[in-house]
Design a protein that fits this description.
Radius of gyration: 18 Å
Strand order of the largest sheet: 1-4-3-2
CATH class of the largest domain: Alpha Beta
Number of strands: 8
Largest sheet: 4 strands, mixed
Shape: elongated
CATH architecture of the largest domain: Roll
Structural class: alpha/beta
Number of domains: 2
Number of helices: 5
Distance between the termini: 52 Å
Amino acid sequence: MISKNTICLWYDGTALDAATFYAKTFPDSEVKAVHRAPGDYPAGKQGDVLMVDFTVMGVPCMGLNGGPSVKHNEAFSFQVATDDQAETDRLWNAIVGNGGEENVCGWCRDKWGVSWQITPRALTAAVTDPDPAVAKRAFEAMMKMGKIDIAAIEAARRG
């Protein structure tokens, strides 16, 4: 059954590779179905993988092998709330270590160009602290980071 709302991600022939990586990297993620093109199309031939139905952490997605004309950018990202430094490190390192690239403030990009925010819950709590001075210290510490260091955020929070 097709979900009422599905995120469609555009790939250049690599939707199945990306979906398979997400399924083995993130909990509650799986490749649900692979659909092959019933005929030739601008980015491929009949029988090529056209669409992949998958979930990322329970969120329904479809990967569309639409060709090279559309590129991912930071206007869309998956934000992953992590519970501790080990989970933060594992997910960040999986994405970056699989041909991805680091960015700032907890953002990274996978090798297919999809942006991810690996965001510890401790960071969210710190930058939304009701005390503006605490929130500012945590925010300023975050602004100097790539992958988020929870111990450094907690230290900034304490002052």
